[in-house]
Amino acid sequence: MATTILPHGMGKVFKECGHSESYWPRCQHPYKIRYRNARGRQQEESGFANQDAAITRLVAIYNERRSTPTNQPKAERIAKYGPMTFRAYAKEWKQGQRHLAPASLIHLDSLLHHHLFPALGTRRMDSFDHKVVEYFIRTMERSGTGLATQSNAFDKLKAILLDANRLGLYPDSPLLGVQAPVYDPKRAVIPTPEQLRALRTAGDDTFELVVDLMSGCGLRNGEAAAVNLNNIVADDTYRVTEQVNRTTKDYDRLKHRKKGEYRDVPLPPRVRETIERYAETHGTVDGYLIRHPQDRSRPYPTYLLNNRWQQLRRTQTLDMPEGLVLYSFRHFFASNCLAHHIPITDVAEWMGHKTLEITFKIYRHLMPGSIGQAAAILNTTLAA
Fold first, then answer.
1. Contact at 8 Å (CB) between 10 and 58?
2. Is the entire prediction scored with pTM above 0.85?
């Protein structure tokens, strides 16, 4: 287990994967933190995508602990925060989430106002227990809330209640024994090569470029919208450095990465030719190829891609099976890689997934081979 030691009293950032610390930025395993809470008990939290996020969380916990007077009795903390409504407590808690990017704050506000506050906003903080949390989950299930949203809403509730638990509001954590919602992505619908060939040329030059970048390089649609001629760092390599943020409609850091981080992905010759042809035909602005159609000083908003996709679907002249979405072109990239025996660890890195588990969960059924095939291959060496 590798560990990063921080100033005395703050805690530790570490990974349990066995990789050296120098390899951590490229390693898919999440960061963890260990610290002592306000009562002096050792606690751990995990799931941090990068070291900065883990350290930011430790700093927030440390400052929070220091700002609470050591001579303040537990009874006083309970008297102050216990009667507070969940809405008021959550708003105060949110002020400490300074590490969140603008888009993440918008997402947090959406979860609070559309899911957490309507169900729990007026509830006293000292009234939470595992039954209240379980009832909240069942409420989301009955209302038909999607599993991804259920999981995100529960994560935010969990963070807020853990914060309250550190203040000593509960004799036992209200999360103890609660089964969290599990987001299980549906099996990806992937276009066939014939469908891909028809769809990539069904739109304009911009649509063709985006489809090629998603299906040939594994880019997200927001990353494809930020394609830059200067990011061709080798004949066969494209460097993904940013995306067009769907919320702010401006260039932003990559998902799951801090500003300035990048990932290099394979650049098939056909995709490179599409990029170069587009640049020659339409020009560039500071290297950027795709710009706002009404104002070339602005980035290309990704909702225009979705609009074009819906227009194609409405024509009903193309072979577009049920479940095929714009994101399916990125699924094609993963399928193509795995069908040609490219290691799933490389595919996960190129696609920019937060963890290898995400890649495995979505694309395991695409990996060639079986137990029988594996047994035959292993036997070749054993019998030699």
1. yes
2. no
Tell me the DSSP string of 50-110: SHHHHHHHHHHHHHHHHHS-TTS-HHHHHHHHTTSBHHHHHHHHHTT-TTS-HHHHHHHHH
Tokens of 222: 């927001």
Cβ partners under 8 Å of residue 199, min gap 6: 191, 211, 312, 318, 320
- What six digits make up the tokens of 144? 């038909």
Q: 169 — phi, psi (to 5°)?
A: -70, -20
If one counts every other C-beta atom within 10 angstroms of the C-beta of residue 368, the result is: 9
Is the model's pLDDT at 86 over the cut of 70? Answer: yes
Please say whether the dihedral angle defined by the alpha carbons of residues 189, 193, 194 and 197, taken in this order, is positive or negative: positive
80's CB contacts (< 8 A; 6+ apart) are: none
- Which pair of structure tokens corresponds to residue 94? 């949110």
Structure tokens at 28: 């898919």
Structure tokens at 38: 């306000």
Q: How far is CA 260 from CA 239, 241, 242, in A?
A: 12, 7, 8
pLDDT at 182: 67
Cα 167 → chain centroid = 30
The rounded distance, in Å, linking the Cα atoms of 287 and 299 is: 12
Residue at token pair 């760092």: 233
Query: For 334-355, what is the mean pLDDT?
Result: 88
Least Cα distance to 55 among 258, 353, 241 occurs for: 258
What Cα–Cα distance (Å) separates residue 282 from each residue in 10, 278, 303? 53, 6, 21
Any idea which residue has 């979405």 for tokens? 325
Q: Among the residues of the chain, which ranges form H helices?
A: 51-67, 74-81, 86-94, 102-111, 117-120, 130-142, 147-166, 193-200, 205-217, 221-225, 269-282, 303-315, 328-339, 344-351, 356-363, 371-382
Question: Which is nearest to 88 in space by CA: 121, 129, 60, 135?
Answer: 121
Per-residue pLDDT tens over the stretch 168-192:
899 888 998 888 886 555 567 889 9
What is the token pair recorded at 73? Answer: 């009795």
